[in-house]
Design brief:
Elements (H helix, E strand, L loop, with lengths): L1 H17 L1 H20 L9 H11 L3 H8 L3 H4 L8 H16 L1 H7 L3 H31 L2 E2 L2 E2 L6 H28 L4 H12 L1 H14 L4 H22 L2 E7 L2 E4 L2 E4 L2 E7 L6 H19 L7 H9 L5 H22 L2 H10 L11 H36 L7 H40 L1
Antiparallel strand pairs: 1-2, 3-6, 4-5
Helix pairs in contact: 2-9, 2-10, 6-7, 6-8, 7-8, 8-9, 9-10, 10-18, 12-18, 13-14, 13-15, 15-17, 16-17
Length: 447
C-alpha cells in the first residue's frame, strides 16, 4: 500500500513538473498575494502609528480583533487595506439573500452567464457603498479614539475624513479586483485566498505569543502540548466533516430516439453536511461582539450604563456569550442553508429533465424528501459548527490562547486549503488528458 501511494505521488509530481500553465497560475497567485501583504503595511495618512497600536491592544478582544484577523493585521496598523475584502463579502452575502426574496434578482439568477454578470456588477456597486459607509464610520471613530500614547489622529477634521474614505475605498476595490484576477488567472478562489493569507500571516505572532506565555509560566508546557494536539485533532475533524456529504441516487429513464435507446443513466445529487460554510460563525460572532466594541469606544465618553452591563454579560467566555453564540450559529446555519438550497427548485429541475429519485414520485414528493434529508444534515452540520467554534472560545477566554486559534479561522483555513488542492488536482488531471489526446492525434497522423 505504501509503495502504491509513493508511486502515485511520483506520478503526480512528474505531472506537476510538466504542467507549465499550472505553475504559471500558481506563481501569479503567489505574486498577487505578496502585493496584498505589502499593502497591509502602507499606513493611512494622518494616523499616529504608536498611539493606534496602543489603542488597538485595549480593544483587540472585540469585533475589531476578528476584523483584524480577516484583514491580516491591516486594521491594527490602520493601513490602506484596513477593511480588507470584508465589504465585498458582505455585499455578496446581501445579494445572495436578496436573490431569494426579490423576483427580479431571482429571474436574473436563472438567466445563466448573462444574469450572473449583472448580479456581479450589482455586487460591486454595493461594495463601493458599503466600504464608503464603513470607511466614514471608521474615520469618525478614529478621531474620537485616544490612549496612553495620545490621539490616534494627528490632525482630525473633514480633510482627514475625506482622505481616509477615498483611500480605504480604493484599497477595498483594489483587493476586489485582485481577487478576481487570482480567480481568473491564478489558482483557487481569489477572495478566499486573500482572507486565507491574512489569517496565515498572523500565525507567527500567535505562535510567539503562545510560547512566550509558556516561557513566563502563564501556560504550562503540558498545556501547550495539549493545545497543539487539540489543534491537530480539530483540523482533522473539520476536514472529515467538510468532506462529508449525502449522495442521493438519481435515475433517468430510457428514451427511444430513432432506432436506438438512450438514457437509463444514474447519477448522484450531493448534499453537503455543512452547506452554509463559515458564514454562520461570522454572523454570530459579529453580532455578539458588537456590544463590547461599542462599550470600548464610549468608555472614555460616558456611554450608557446599560451598554456596559450588556458588554459585561456578553464578554468572551461568559456563560451567556457561549450559549447565545452556539444558538446563533445553529440559527444562521439553518437560515443560510435554506437560502442557498431550495428543495422545490431542485425537484422541479429533476422533473424537467426526466430525473427521479427511486421510491419517490417526481414533484412535491421529491421536494419533501429532499427537505427531510437537508434538515437532518443541517442539524448535524449546525451542531458541528457550534462545537468547533465554541470550544476554542472557551480556551481563548480561560487560558488567553491567541485569537488565531478561533474556530472561525480554522474553518476558513481548512476550507480554502481543501478547495485550492482540489483545483490543483483538477488542473493536473486535465493536463494528463490533454497529453493523452495529443499522443493519440500524433499516432493517428503517423498511421
Amino acid at each position: 500500500m505504501a509503495v502504491a501511494d509513493q508511486l502515485a505521488a511520483n506520478v503526480n509530481w512528474r505531472a506537476f513538473a510538466r504542467a507549465t500553465e499550472l505553475k504559471q497560475r500558481i506563481l501569479f497567485a503567489l505574486g498577487a498575494l505578496i502585493v496584498y501583504r505589502l499593502g497591509t503595511f502602507i499606513p493611512l495618512p494622518g494616523i499616529d502609528g504608536e498611539a493606534m497600536a496602543a489603542i488597538f491592544r485595549q480593544q483587540a478582544g472585540g469585533i475589531m480583533g476578528m476584523f483584524n484577523m480577516f484583514a491580516g493585521g491591516a486594521l491594527e496598523r490602520m493601513s490602506i487595506f484596513a477593511l480588507g475584502i470584508l465589504p465585498y463579502i458582505s455585499a455578496a452575502i446581501i445579494m445572495q439573500l436578496m436573490t431569494a426574496v426579490s423576483p427580479t434578482l431571482e429571474q436574473l439568477k436563472k438567466e445563466g452567464e448573462t444574469g450572473r454578470r449583472t448580479i456581479n456588477q450589482y455586487t460591486r456597486y454595493l461594495t463601493v457603498a458599503l466600504s464608503a459607509f464603513q470607511a466614514y464610520g471608521l474615520s469618525v471613530g478614529l478621531e474620537s479614539m485616544s490612549g496612553p500614547a495620545g490621539s490616534a489622529v494627528v490632525d482630525p477634521g473633514w480633510f482627514f475624513r475625506a482622505s481616509t474614505v477615498i483611500t480605504i475605498v480604493g484599497g477595498t476595490l483594489f483587493l476586489m479586483w485582485l481577487g478576481e484576477q487570482i480567480t481568473a488567472r491564478g489558482i483557487g478562489n481569489g477572495i478566499s485566498l486573500i482572507i486565507f493569507t491574512g489569517i496565515i500571516a498572523t500565525l507567527p505572532s500567535a505562535l510567539f505569543s503562545t510560547f512566550e506565555l509558556g516561557r513566563t509560566g502563564a501556560l504550562s508546557p503540558l498545556f501547550i502540548i495539549f493545545l497543539v494536539v487539540m489543534l491537530v485533532a480539530l483540523i482533522t475533524f473539520v476536514v472529515f466533516m467538510e468532506r462529508g456529504q449525502r449522495r442521493v441516487l438519481v435515475q433517468y429513464p430510457k428514451q427511444q430516439r430513432g432506432n436506438r435507446m438512450v438514457g437509463g443513466e444514474t447519477s448522484h445529487l450531493p448534499l453537503k453536511l455543512n452547506s452554509s460554510g463559515v458564514i454562520p460563525a461570522i454572523f454570530a460572532s459579529s453580532i455578539l461582539l458588537m456590544p463590547s466594541t461599542l462599550a470600548s469606544f464610549t468608555a472614555g465618553g460616558g456611554g450608557p450604563e446599560w451598554l456596559a452591563v450588556v458588554s459585561t454579560l456578553l464578554g468572551r467566555g461568559a456563560p451567556l456569550f457561549i450559549l447565545l453564540y452556539a444558538g446563533l450559529i445553529i440559527f444562521f446555519a439553518f437560515f443560510y442553508t435554506s437560502i442557498v438550497f431550495n428543495p422545490q427548485d431542485t425537484a422541479d429541475n429533476l422533473k424537467k429533465h426526466g430525473g427521479f429519485i427511486p421510491g419517490y414520485r417526481p414533484g412535491q414528493r421529491t421536494a419533501d424528501y429532499l427537505d427531510y434529508l437537508l434538515t437532518r444534515l443541517t442539524t448535524v452540520g449546525a451542531l458541528y459548527l457550534a462545537a468547533v467554534c465554541v470550544l476554542p472560545e472557551i480556551l481563548i477566554s480561560q487560558y488567553a490562547v491567541p485569537f488565531y486559534f478561533g474556530g472561525t479561522s480554522v474553518l476558513i483555513v481548512v476550507s480554502v486549503t481543501m478547495d485550492t488542492v482540489a483545483q490543483i488536482q483538477s488542473h493536473l488531471i486535465a493536463h494528463q488528458y490533454e497529453g493523452l489526446i495529443k499522443k493519440a492525434k500524433l499516432r493517428g497522423r503517423r498511421a
